[in-house]
Amino acid sequence: MAQPGPATGPFHWDNRLLSIKELARLQTFPDDIIVVGSRRSAQMQIGNAVPSLIGEILARAIVEQFWGVTYDLPLKFKVNLQRPITSPEEIEPVPQKYLHLVGNYADHPGTGKGPRANKENVELALASEDELQDTSRIKKGREVIQQRFVMERNTAR
After folding, report:
1. Which one, of 38, 35, 51, 44, lies nearest residue 3 by Cα?
2. For residue 17, what are the β-bridge partners?
3. Using CA atoms, how far apart are residues 71 and 12, in angstroms rounded to an integer?
4. What is the pLDDT at residue 65?
């Protein structure tokens, strides 16, 4: 959650991203917490924070161990069950159109080492001089786009 992206969960079972309020609630923040900034910024703040309940438990333990003070009061940030938990959805069989994908596959070899990368390397090795110049221009274009993306990301911070 500290580095959110477009497909970063956690996801709601209704196939949507969790709201900032829901993310804060998962971290045991009180409902009246205000998180300032963009969604990305708020998600990073919540994801990098120590959950309130853990902070409260640790603080009580430290006070008890160092000063011998014990607290009989209930935990302020304890999560209380407010409604019965719904039963899980029934598991459905895999649709027929995906069954052809079942099988044993080798693990992915790593970033930049998959079949497509190998295919591109072979194509480059067999390419003519003109094709290499075109490939070089495409590669340069990709580098420029990537540099712009990094610059935009850094200025957005």
Report:
1. 44
2. 11
3. 36
4. 94
Rounded-to-integer distance, Cα 23 and Cα 100, Å: 37
Q: Which two tokens stand for residue 68?
A: 């011998």
Name the residue among 35, 73, 26 with its Cα closest to residue 54. Answer: 26
Which pLDDT value is given to residue 59?
94
Per-residue HEC secondary structure of the chain comes to CCCCCCCCCCEECCCEECCHHHHHHHCCCCCCCCCCCCHHHHHHHHHHCCCHHHHHHHHHHHHHHHHCCCCCCCCCCCCCCCCCCCCCCCCCCCCHHHHHHCCCCCCCCCCCCCHHHHHHHHHHHHCCHHHHHHHHHHHHHHHHHHHHHHHHHHHHC
Give residue 103's pLDDT band: very low, low, confident or very high (50, 70, 90).
Answer: confident
Q: What is the pLDDT of residues 59-102, one digit of tens each?
A: 999 999 999 998 889 999 888 877 787 788 888 999 999 999 88
